[in-house]
Amino acid sequence: MTQSSIESTPARLGAISLRGVGILFGEGSAAVEAVRGIDLHVEPGEFVSILGPSGCGKSTIIGAIAGYTPVSSGQVLVDDQPIHSPGPDRGVVFQQHTLFPWKTVRENVEFGLKMRRVQRVERRRIALEILEQVGLADFSNHYPAQLSGGMQQRVSLARVLVNRPRVLLMDEPFCALDAQTRLGMQQMLLELWREFHMTVIFVSHDVDEVLFLSDRVLVSSPRPGRIHATLSVDLPRPRDSLVLTSPEFMRLKRHAMELIGAIPEKPTARAN
Asked: How many CB atoms are closer than 10 A to CB 206?
């Protein structure tokens, strides 16, 4: 696998479709309806964010696309194939890193390649290339506990990217970071997204963050989560931090806040 092959994830792969997706946790009268009637299509290479309050089912949708969370009704498809289990075509970055504390940074990034039986010399070379791209080549022999929170999340991202996923699923990955580190991670993510041509689904409750990153923002209602509104983000790309204070950004932010304010406070009754 060469450097060019790492960067050549086909741009026309990674289409995501949710068709009438509903998800229940538990059974009978104790069942909790997490999401209801989600219809969604994401084009290959598109960057789409889901914005909503805690408990609205954002992470549940991520879990369904990843294949971790079974749907109770409807269907989830990636490139027209039904999703029933996790797969290397879909990488997930969580709120907290899931690195192996007993492995070095390089060993953590190599792990997926090792599971795919890539030879040691080759997987080491590929891992170091990815670490260079996320700015951590000098820390390849460190352990996760020796890194800052932002660096740990960069390792988590590198560990996903080394498998060249068609789809990158991100569940509030930067929420625990300070403002400066968070902005740096957002800018790095946009650079990697352009380079790797992935489809990205990004979950957040931060309006500025989703507007800065996304092509499109989906506003979710309280549980049971439904797509309440869709906002197209027509800011030019590539984007840098200056866009955050532009009149166009402020206009979009006002619109987003209006959409959030129009969400009904109480969820609709569950259909029998």
From this structure: 15
Coil vs helix vs strand at 167: strand
Looking at the chain, how many residues does it have?
Answer: 272
CA distance 188 to 261: 31
Any idea what the Cα angle at residue 189 is, between residues 108 and 234, rounded to 5°? 160
Strand-pair category, 16-25 with 73-78: antiparallel
pLDDT in tens, 136-195: 999 999 999 999 999 999 999 999 999 999 999 999 999 889 999 999 999 999 999 999
Hunting for tokens 């509104």 — which residue is that? Answer: 229
Quick one: tokens of 121? 């010399």
Show me where the domains of the chain are located.
1-89+167-272, 96-164
Per-residue pLDDT tens digits for 102-137: 999 999 999 989 888 889 999 999 999 999 999 999
Q: Which two tokens stand for residue 260?
A: 């959030």
Q: Are 13 and 166 in contact (CB under 8 A)?
A: yes
Distance CA 73, CA 53 (A): 23
Q: Please state which CATH number belongs to domain 1-89+167-272.
A: 3.40.50.300
Query: What global pTM score does this model have?
Result: 0.89
Residue 208 dihedral angles phi and psi, to the nearest 5°: -60, -40
- In the chain, DSSP finds a helix count (H) and a strand count (E) of 8, 10
